[in-house]
Amino acid sequence: MAITTCIFDAYGTLFDVAAAAREAASEPGRETFAAHWPQVAEHWRLKQLQYSWLRAVTGAHTDFWEVTQNGLDWALEASGLSGDAALRERLLQLYWELSAYPEVPAMLAALKSKDFNTAILSNGSPAMLDGAVQSAGVGDVLDDVLSVESVGIFKPARAVYDLVGDRFGCAADEVLFVSSNGWDAAAASGYGFTTAWVNRAGDPVDRLPWTPQHILSDLTTIPNLAGA
After folding, report:
1. Out of 9, 144, 173, 206, which one is annotated catalytic?
2. CATH no. for 5-15+99-227
3. Architecture (CATH level 2) of domain 19-95
4. What confidence tens digit (pLDDT) does each residue in 44-72 have?
């Protein structure tokens, strides 16, 4: 069946999750942090994801903002920066203002010009996602922003992917699901979506029962892929 609906993960897919640490490192007076920011950004994202998986498996759900703070606290302590309360506050503030990757606005606009449904499906809490969408200026090219908070469990639970069909009334094979997380794209393939993994870092494919149908280096070709 032809694709009618294009669904995007948010963090790392549309929005650059390293932007908060990178921007903070460039600010005057943060020379110590500047020497550590790549490690902090990597650990922050890794722990954010790990905590979401562990909470999903154990049934200990909380919103993504708490998970984001927990991940940052671990990352700062691992780099010997846990005592800098002002840095922590600044990083969390910047996380609400993440920039989109350069190709995102034009890509989404191209999809809307071709009458595709477009939406975000994210672990993020509604308030966090609203902040990112408004900061990136892409709200007018998205039909909806779907958060896991409506089902109370993080990806890759099937109940999260169910939200797409519930919202748009489409079959799974009408959906192109796009994520920068290989595990997310793989799980969505197992669910029945056509999937594209945006592998910006050139990472190996995850060893899971399913694999993404498409592997891309960025989002530029998504409109062509959806219309193929």
Report:
1. 9
2. 3.40.50.1000
3. Orthogonal Bundle (1.10)
4. 999 999 999 999 999 999 999 999 999 99
